[in-house]
Amino acid sequence: KSCQKPVDKYIEYDPVIILINAVLCKAQAYRHILFNTKINIHGKLCIFCLLCEAYIRWLQLQDSSQNTDPDDLIRYAKEWDFYRLFCIASLEQTSFFIGIFITLWWMTPEMLKRKSDFILLLKALLLSTYGKLLLIPAVIWEHDYTPLCLAFIKVFVLISNSQAIRVTLNLNRILPWFAIFFGLILENGVVCLFQKMGWDV
After folding, report:
1. I need a labelling partner for 168 at 20 to 30 A (CA). Which of 68, 86, 117, 125 fits?
2. By CB neighbour count within 10 A (0-12 exposed, 13-18 middle, 19+ buried), where does 10 fall?
3. How far apart are CA 201 and CA 198, in angstroms?
4. Which residues cross the membrane (predicted)?
5. Which pTM does this prediction carry?
């Protein structure tokens, strides 16, 4: 019903080709992954992406006092800053998703009638944050353009989120971006709240 085709062409495709098409943000590849595969890594992928984001932030906090002493690295591993940044990243992502859900429920209440609709959309959003895994090579290949790389990764994740919303609810292109925009406003509100509390975000 969603793709309006007699058959899903990706059933015959190699998983690598499907992954490449998903990275290229093709709607049909997203439909195949969400509706015709039994991927159950949403929670693990979300936790791993949040760990990557927390590590990037934690690393930026440590930049001011770099020390290659192994004892120092062990001491850094025990610091609570990393866990605090992980919690902040989790709250930011949660507020982003809440903003998206509120907007979509307000704009198209008929699309999110059942609990299963909410769960499917949540799974789609969690899977579409896979772009945050690119934070790992951005850290490994540290260079002068790292802030630019992080900005590109953020844009890529937002584009993936838009495609996931569009495919899951069978919407046009404008409404998912409106929901993402509202989600970003709510996320930035949470960031401002943490900054007012005097926390490094």
Report:
1. 86
2. buried
3. 9
4. 82-106, 118-141, 148-168, 174-194
5. 0.80
